Amino acid sequence: MGAARARTRRLSRRPAASVADAARGGASVAHHRLRHLRQPDELRRPDLHSELGGVRRPDRPPGAGDLPSGLRTGDRREPRAHGRRPHRTDLARHRIAQAPAARGRAVRGRPVDQPLVSGTVLLLRRLVRRPARAAVRPRRGGRATRPRVGGEPHPRLCARRVPARGHAVATRGPAPPGLVRGRVRARARPAEPHVAAGQARAHGIVRDVAVGCLPDCGVRRVQTERRDPESHGLGGHPPRDGRCRACAGRRKPTVTPRVHTDPERRARPPPTGTPAGRRPGMNRSVRFDDIRALLVCHVDNAGISRVKVLPHRKLLSASTHGVTISNSAGVLFSVDDHLNATRDVDPVVGDLRGIADTSSMAMLDREARLAWAPADLFSLDGTPHPTCQRTALRRVVDDAEDARLTFLVGFELECTVFRPSPVEGEPPVPATTGPAYSTRALLEVEAFAFAALEALDVAGVPVDQMHPEFGTGQLEFAFAPRDPLAAVDDLALARVVLTRVAQRHGLMVSFAPVPIAGGSTNGCHVHLSARRDGRNVFADPKAKLGVTPLGANMIAGILDRLEEGVALLGGSVLSFARLRPHAWAGADICWGPGNREAAIRFVPGQAGMGAEQSNIEVKPTDGAANPYLAVAAIIAAALDGVARGATPPKPVHVDPSTLTAAQRRSAGIRPLPADLGSALHRLESSEFYRGVFGDVLIDAYVATRQHEWEAYGEHVPEDVADLVRWRY
C-alpha cells in the first residue's frame, strides 16, 4: 500500500489531462500494433482494447475497474482473471496499466508526454510469442508442458516450465480433492498425453503430484516425480527453496513420507525400466509407443489364464493402479467356471488389483501392436494378496537366495495340434498322423511349427528345440533354462503365443493332460538346476550318486513331499488319468539317471559337460497345473530337503513297474495318489505346504479343485476330455 500511495502522489503532480492522454495514447497504439502480431487464435482477445482503455466489458461485474480482475494499482501479486491462474496476456495488460509513461517518467530519452509505444509492443511481442516457441522447442533448463488457460490444459500450446524432480512451482487455487497437507496424491492426468510436451511426459517418465507447502499455507505446489533414471537432463530450478512467496521467509517445509489417502492408489512401485519393459535375459524391449493394447494376464487356481485388456491411453497405470479383478475371477473359479467360496475369500464381495509386471512385458504381435504382461494380485490396501500365486513363487525364490542357492528352471511343454475334421459335424482330428518323432509328422504341420518359432522369438521366449512327439498331432517345445519367475512367465506367454498362431493357421491346440482319451498324454516337465557359489549341485562325477551332497538333499526333499504336493503339480481329474505306468509320466515316487518312468529323472549331461548340463526333471507336472504354484512347490521341497539334510533312496535304473512288490519296498518306491480326491486330501492336511503358501491360498486352491473332483471324478475320461480339451 505504501508503494501504491507514493506512485499516486507522483501522478498527482502532473496535470490530469496530460496523464490521461499519455495513458490513453500508449494503450491505444499498443492495441493497434497488437492486432498485427501473429498470435495463436487462442490468444487473440477482442476485448483487449476495452480493458486497456478503461471501458468495462458488459460481462464483467460492476466496479471491476479498468484493470484485470484481482489487480490493484501497485499490487505485486500474480493477477487472477476470473478465478483462474493468469495467462501471459493478463500479465502484459497489468504491466501496460503501470507503464512508465502513465506514471509521468521519461523512458529512453523520450519526453514524458510522448506515448510509450515501442517498449510496450516489444514487451507484448516477447510475452505473446513465447508460448508458440515453447511448443516447438522447450526452454533451456526446463521441460515444455501443457499451459493452463482457464484452469484447464491448453490443447495446442506448450508454454510453462516444469522443474525437475524434487522441485516445485507455486500455483494458487484450491488443492485437488483428497489432498492432505504435507502428503502427496497423484493428480488427475488428461486422457490423451500431449505429444508436443515431449516423450518424457507422453510415456510416463514423470508425473505431477500436488504437495502442501506448509501446514497452514493455502498455496499448493505441483511437484514432478521422475520415473526413468536414464532421463536426467530435463531439470529446472526450484523457486525459493521449494516454498511459495508467502512462506519464503518462514521455516523450511518439513519433508513427510508419501502416503496416499485412497487405498487404491497405494500400489507396488513399477519395476526398474518401466515403461519400457525388457524381457529378462533377452536383447529385446517393448516400448509403450509400440503398443496399441496390453493383455494383463494371470493364471488362476484352475490353471486357466484370465485376462484384462488395457488400451494405449491406460498403459501408464498398468504397473501402478493395474486392473480390477474380482475375487472369483482371481482365485475361485473352477475349470468349468463354477464359483467356489472359502472362509477367507468371498466370491461376491471384494476386489483385487492386478498389477502388471511391465519388466516382463512382451510383444505378441508387432503388426497388431498387441503386448502381454503377467500380473500380481494385490489387495486394495496395496499389499500382495495372500492368494497371489506369482508372489508365492517370488517368496520361495527369495528363500533360496537366503540359502545362497540360485535355481534355474526350464520347461518341456507338450501340446496336441488339431485340424477341422474333413467330415462336416465331426469333432476336430489330430493334425499329424505320425510316425512318432518323424520328419513326416513335422512336415504335416510345417507352416504352423515354424510360424510358432518365429512368434516365440518375437515374444522373447527362448526355445532350445522343438520336435514332434510320440502321439498323433503332438509337439514338444523345450524352453531354455531361466530364473524361476521368468521361466514360468515364459511358459504362460508361450501358451498364449501358440494358441494365437494355431488359430491363424486354421488349427486348434490343446494343453490338456489327456486331449484324446486312450491316446498320448501331454506333460509339462520341469527341469531344475541349482548352484551354490557358482557350482552346479547336481554335477559331481566323483560322487557315487553323480551329484553333490547338497544335490542329493534336494532330490530327497522333493521325493519326500511328492505325495502331499502332487495335487499342485497337476490338479485335474485327467492329471491322474495321465499318471499311469508306461506313459513316461513319472507315476512312481523314485529317481534314477535317465529313467523316464521315475518321478524324478536325473539328467547327468554329456561327458565333460556335466557342470553346465546336469539337472533333474520332475515329470508328474502337466498343463492343468498353475505353473507358479508347481515350481514353487518343487523348489520349496528341495530347500526343505537341504534344511533337514535328507538322504535320497538308491537310484532306480529300470522301469519301476517291472519290479515285484518286495523289490519296490526294498528300493523305497511308492506310488503317487491314485486320484484327485486322495491327492487333495493329502494337500489339505499338509502342514509343510500350508507353511509355504499360507492357509488362505491352500484353502482357495483345494476348494477350486475339489469341485472338479466332485463334479467329474466319477465320469469316464472320454467325457472329461471333451469338456476340458480347450480350457487350458
Concise overview:
Helices cover 31% and strands 18% of the residues.
Radius of gyration: 35 Å
Query: Into which percentage range does the β-strand content fall?
Result: 15-25%
Output the structural class. Answer: alpha+beta
CATH class of the domain at 284-727: Alpha Beta
Proper CATH architecture of the domain at 284-727: 2-Layer Sandwich
State the total count of DSSP E strands. 27
What would you call the shape? Answer: globular
Structure description:
The structure is a single chain. The chain has a domain at 284-727: Creatine Kinase, Chain A, domain 2 (2-Layer Sandwich). Helix content is 31%, strand content 18%. The strands form 6 sheets. Strands 17, 18, 19, 20, 21, 22, 23, 24, 25, 26 and 27 form an 11-stranded mixed beta sheet that branches. Strands 11, 12, 13, 14, 15 and 16 form a 6-stranded mixed beta sheet that branches. Strand 2 (148-149) and strand 3 (152-153) form a beta hairpin.
Tell me the layout of helices and strands:
Blueprint: H1 2-12, H2 16-34, H3 48-52, H4 88-97, H5 118-136, E1 144-145, E2 148-149, E3 152-153, E4 160-161, E5 168-171, E6 184-186, H6 199-202, E7 206-212, E8 220-226, E9 277-278, E10 285-286, E11 293-299, E12 305-311, E13 323-326, H7 327-332, E14 351-356, E15 362-365, E16 370-378, H8 389-402, E17 406-419, E18 429-430, H9 439-444, H10 446-459, E19 463-468, E20 474-479, H11 484-504, E21 508-510, E22 524-532, E23 535-536, H12 549-569, H13 573-578, E24 588-593, E25 598-603, H14 610-613, E26 615-618, H15 627-644, H16 661-667, E27 670-671, H17 676-684, H18 687-693, H19 695-712, H20 717-724
Parallel strand pairs: 11-16, 24-25
Antiparallel strand pairs: 1-4, 2-3, 5-8, 6-7, 7-8, 9-10, 11-12, 13-14, 14-16, 15-16, 17-18, 17-20, 17-21, 17-22, 19-20, 22-23, 22-26, 24-27, 25-26
